[in-house]
Amino acid sequence: MLETGIDRPLFAMAQDGDQAVALPLADHSRRLTPLSNWYAFTWAPMATAGDQSPALLGSLAKDLARRTPAMVLDKLPDEDGTASRLETAFRKAGWLVQREICDTNHVLPVGGRSYAQFLADRPGALRTTLKRKAKKVDVELFTRFNAEAWDEYEAVYRESWKPEEGDPALLRRFAMAEGGAGRIRFGLARHDGVVIAAQFWTVEGGTAYIHKLAHRESAKPLSAGTTLTAALFAEVIDNDGVELVDFGTGNDPYKRDWMETIRPRYRLTMWRRENPRNWPVIARSWLRQLVSRRRDV
């Protein structure tokens, strides 16, 4: 799904027989960026049967040099080699490539544990909070999209600590589509009949994705978000049997209580050296890196 007002889509594709690789991109006139949206966890090339051949990526990198003077690819994973493959392909095609960490991804490899076993491995302070506060809220879980429940989520979000939503209409359409496919895992927590926390998860391919969570600031002492998170972990581990839980991007401290593995997300900023318009930008980037290295010494 795409956000409204997105720049012109550009699908760059290379093919050799039955094998093909495509880069879904957005054209911003003087640079190309991933064709993505506010809520995407990652971006990566699309390939037939998962094959991202170096030769095909190299062909794309050479062809794109004739299309644009600069590219910025971010939200790139590298636990599967995505960032490294792209970096190598574009360097070999003559691009100047700057690689940096742009975000953090917290995940939980379940490792065959039950929810009870997983909970026993959580920090003592978290388990104590659950014991003390869980009885003060009522939890309701949904595995199908429910319009009234979604309205409650939006109301809670408006009164939460979260920043303004990037594209709420897009998020709702995504939730509806996931609900229709049976992949949604949605939860509400109530106190005295009033919804004070809400969370939106999905389950697909053995992975549970935590997309959105919010609680009313006025109800923070009840720790309803913690209780709701625990209920959804129980749902996806014991009932769905997921192998991995993905907490998306962001290095929020509370994620460390629930997750056990941290994976970086990378940004590749790439320029054509021969384009004079890129020279000032390249010079500024080089100076920033030089200053940063000196600070680290």
UniProtKB/TrEMBL annotation:
<keyword id="KW-0808">Transferase</keyword>
<dbReference type="Pfam" id="PF13480">
    <property type="entry name" value="Acetyltransf_6"/>
</dbReference>
<protein>
    <submittedName>
        <fullName>GNAT family N-acetyltransferase</fullName>
    </submittedName>
</protein>
<dbReference type="GO" id="GO:0016740">
    <property type="term" value="F:transferase activity"/>
</dbReference>
<dbReference type="InterPro" id="IPR038740">
    <property type="entry name" value="BioF2-like_GNAT_dom"/>
</dbReference>
<dbReference type="InterPro" id="IPR016181">
    <property type="entry name" value="Acyl_CoA_acyltransferase"/>
</dbReference>
<feature type="domain" description="BioF2-like acetyltransferase">
    <location>
        <begin position="127"/>
        <end position="256"/>
    </location>
</feature>
